[in-house]
Write a structure and sequence with these properties.
The chain is 62% helix and 3% strand. It is mainly alpha-helical.
């Protein structure tokens, strides 16, 4: 990248190596690279947070409040990019989704068939049997709520949390293996995880309603 201020090669960091001017971010930059982290699922979150805080201080808009307009714009853009990178990488689900996106796999969409012609695509979705099971569990959860059965709702929520935890382990192992077939397994597991998380959210809301209702009288 050529520095906007001195017209010399700026280098890889946020500041120009020649003149120290803040550079605009590369919009296509890898979010792991933004934080100086290896692009893998098992990341050092403590190191990521330290990098995020350090870089945030370097590019914070307050430091460039009276600077050249180009530096102020670069500061805002750098801050937005840093926040996006850290939000994505610190969250295990978002991190998994991002890694799959980097590998060309769009969850809920289409991607190259593993081992085949890259122009061929397959749908990443949940099997009909799995969808039927989730539908039945949601019906069971709704019935428990109608009956005011707090024990049943809590039990179902905890069972789904256990499934979500096991699924996250599967996703982590598949992503860190880095093999195409394993990546597709991670994608299928991530689709399932989304259903689990929605169920947990719904069950938690119902638990709160039931507990609130029981204490209202």
């Amino acid at each position: 990248m050529i520095c906007w201020s001195c017209q010399k090669q700026a280098g890889a960091g946020p500041l120009c190596a020649a003149c120290g001017a803040l550079q605009p971010p590369d919009d296509a930059a890898d979010l792991f690279a933004v934080l100086g982290l290896p692009a893998r699922y098992a990341v050092d979150l403590a190191a990521g947070e330290a990098a995020y805080k350090d870089l945030s201080r370097q590019v914070h808009p307050d430091r460039y409040a009276t600077a050249d307009p180009r530096a102020r714009r670069a500061s805002l853009a750098r801050t937005v990019q840093l926040n996006q990178a850290w939000r994505t990488i610190k969250d295990p689900v978002r991190r998994a989704e991002y890694l799959l996106t980097r590998a060309g796999i769009d969850i809920g969409g289409k991607q190259p068939t593993p081992g085949g012609d890259e122009k061929r695509t397959v749908e990443v979705g949940a099997p009909p049997a799995f969808l039927m099971e989730i539908l039945e569990l949601n019906d069971e959860l709704a019935a428990a709520q109608r009956k005011g059965d707090t024990v049943k709702v809590a039990f179902m929520a905890e069972e789904m949390r256990a499934r979500a935890r096991e699924t996250m382990k599967t996703i982590a192992a598949a992503l860190d293996a880095g093999v195409p077939a394993q990546l597709h397994e991670a994608a299928r597991s991530l689709v399932a995880l989304r259903y689990y998380l929605r169920f947990i959210e719904q069950a938690s809301g119902q638990e709160a309603k039931l507990e609130g209702g029981s204490g209202a009288g």
